[in-house]
Design goal:
With 325 residues, this protein is an alpha+beta fold. It contains 8 helices and 11 strands. A 6-stranded antiparallel β-barrel has the order 1-2-3-4-6-5. A 5-stranded mixed beta sheet has the order 9-8-7-10-11. Helix 3 (179-200) crosses helix 4 (215-222) and helix 3 (179-200) runs parallel beside helix 5. Residues 310-325 have low confidence and may be disordered.
C-alpha cells in the first residue's frame, strides 16, 4: 500500500522474533525506550507537545514491562516521533535448568557419554581448577588384528585434594580407526568436558593438568586450527577442535606421560599421572573388547561427533575411503 504500509496488518506474534528489537513503547504511560547494548534511554511525553512526540528523560536502570515494538523517527533536540507500532512480542519459552550431564549431551555425540552416570553436578571441578589440583588423563586403544574398525578411548578427571573423580570410556566404529584416532578421541572428550564445565558454571577455566602418552596428539591439540584441509587426517576431530577453540581459550597444560611405566615399576610407586594413564589404558582396551562383544548394535550406531553439524555413519566413511583410492 501507500507509504510502505501493509494493506492488512499482521496478526499477533506466535513465536519469539529472530530480530533484536531496540525500539519499544509503553502505551499506558505514553513512554518510549531505545535499547542499546550497554544502556537504555527513556523518552516521555511533554504536555506541551503532541501526544506522539516523546522527549528524552534520561537513562533507565531497567526496561519497562508490557511494551510493544515500534518505529520511532528522530525529530529535533532529542525528541522522537512515534511512527508505527506492532503487537507485543511473543515471550520466549522458559528454559528448564539442565543438569551438567544433560548440557554435555545436548552438544550431540551421545555415544561418547553413553556409560557416564553422575549422581550430582561436578561442582568440584571448578574448585580443583582454582586450587590447581585437577588432573586429567586420557588414552586410546586399537587392536588392528581383532577389531581393525574400532577405536577405543578412556578419560579421567581427578582432584588430588578432594579425591573426587569422574571417568568414562567409549568406542567408535569407523574405517578411519587406528591408534592415533583413538588417542585423539580421548583428548577431544576431555576438551568437550572442560568446555561444558566452562559454559555450565559460566567461568573461564584454565590450567588443568592434562596428561597423554601420545606426543602427536598433544601437538595437534596445542595448535590453533583456523582452517582444516579436506584431506587432513581425522579432519572431523579437527573441525570440532576448531569450534571449541573459537568458543573458549581452554588454556590448559598438556603434558606428556610415559606409557606402560607399570612394566618396570610397582603400581604403588608410580606418580599420580602414571597411575591415571595406567587406568585409562586398561579401560580403553576394555571399551574395544566391549564393542566387539556388542557387535550388532555397535555397527548400527551413527557416530557423529559432538558439535558436528552433520552426522557421519559407517557407510559414508566407507564411500569416503574408496574415493581416495
Amino acid at each position: 500500500g501507500p507509504n510502505l504500509y501493509l494493506n492488512q496488518a499482521l496478526g499477533k506474534w506466535i513465536a519469539p522474533s529472530t530480530r533484536k528489537w531496540r525500539q519499544f513503547y509503553h502505551p499506558e504511560t505514553n513512554t518510549g525506550e531505545l535499547h542499546y547494548d550497554d544502556k537504555i534511554l527513556r523518552f516521555e511525553n511533554d504536555p506541551d507537545d503532541r501526544a506522539y512526540i516523546l522527549s528524552l528523560s534520561g537513562e533507565a536502570e531497567a526496561a519497562l514491562t508490557d511494551t510493544i515494538p515500534v518505529t520511532f523517527v528522530d525529530v529535533v533536540d532529542g525528541k522522537l516521533k512515534l511512527k508505527s507500532r506492532g503487537p507485543k512480542l511473543a515471550e520466549p519459552p522458559l528454559q528448564e535448568h539442565l543438569s551438567f550431564i544433560e548440557a554435555l549431551r545436548s552438544k550431540g555425540g551421545e555415544w561418547m557419554w553413553k556409560g557416564l552416570v553422575l549422581d550430582e553436578d561436578p561442582d568440584w571441578i571448578i574448585d580443583a581448577l582454582e586450587r590447581g589440583s585437577l588432573y586429567c588423563a586420557t588414552d586410546g586403544s586399537h587392536n588392528k588384528k581383532l577389531a581393525p574398525l574400532i577405536s577405543g578411548a578412556a578419560w579421567v578427571l581427578f582432584c588430588s585434594h578432594s579425591r573426587k573423580v569422574m571417568r568414562g570410556e567409549f568406542a567408535e566404529f569407523s574405517v578411519a580407526a587406528n591408534s592415533y584416532r583413538a588417542e585423539q578421541l580421548g583428548m577431544l572428550a576431555l576438551h568437550l568436558l572442560l568446555l561444558t564445565a566452562e559454559e555450565y558454571y559460566q567461568r573461564s577455566l584454565t590450567d588443568a593438568n592434562i596428561f597423554c602418552d601420545n606426543k602427536g596428539t598433544m601437538q595437534t591439540f596445542s595448535k590453533e586450527h583456523r582452517r582444516i584441509p579436506a584431506g587432513a587426517k581425522n579432519n572431523d576431530i579437527l573441525r570440532v577442535l576448531r569450534r571449541i577453540q573459537t568458543t573458549s581459550k581452554l588454556a590448559h597444560k598438556l603434558q606428556h606421560v610415559k606409557a606402560h611405566q607399570d612394566d618396570n615399576v610397582p603400581f604403588r610407586l608410580l606418580s599420580l599421572d602414571a597411575k591415571l594413564n595406567f587406568e585409562c589404558d586398561l579401560r580403553a582396551k576394555h571399551a574395544v573388547q566391549q564393542a566387539i562383544a556388542d557387535d550388532a548394535s555397535f555397527r548400527t550406531t551413527i557416530y557423529s561427533l559432538p558439535l558436528e553439524q552433520a552426522s557421519r555413519g559407517p557407510r559414508p566413511l566407507l564411500r569416503e575411503k574408496r574415493s581416495k583410492k
